[in-house]
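To fix ideas, we close by showing one paired sequence and structure record:
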Amino acid sequence: MTLAVAKKPGTNAVEIARHVIERFEQIQGTFVPEGVNATVTRNYGQTAEAKADKLIFATLSVVVLVMFALGWREAIIVGVAVIVTLLITLFASWAYGFTLNRVSLFALIFSIGILVDDAIVVVENIHRHIQLGEKSLLKAIPVAVDEVGGPPSWPPSP
């Protein structure tokens, strides 16, 4: 016999899987006869939880790698950028009723890669401007960000 349980949209796969397994264990011996062996063949809740853990591990790994490659200040900037972006994105997803699935999780991981790359480029350019003789960090930041930021709007303002 095969029993397939699917979650409703907007529910948490990890919680659903945990509740189904707990409930099955409760009814064993009562509604499920003794001697019947049950095996969970596919648990998407477990898979989703593992992928979420990988997202946390990937974020921490990026921060540590940036720390070794560029320094602790740069790692803090990149780490804060990634964490704030993740929090805002996950909050907006929750607020609009979206759930994380494999596609959205991959998109989130991909966008973190782009975010980290952009943050590293900006930090390196700020560092370059300071080495070129810019007296103040507060003066170097806008100039450096303007150089590597997005393209100017069109038509150019007068």
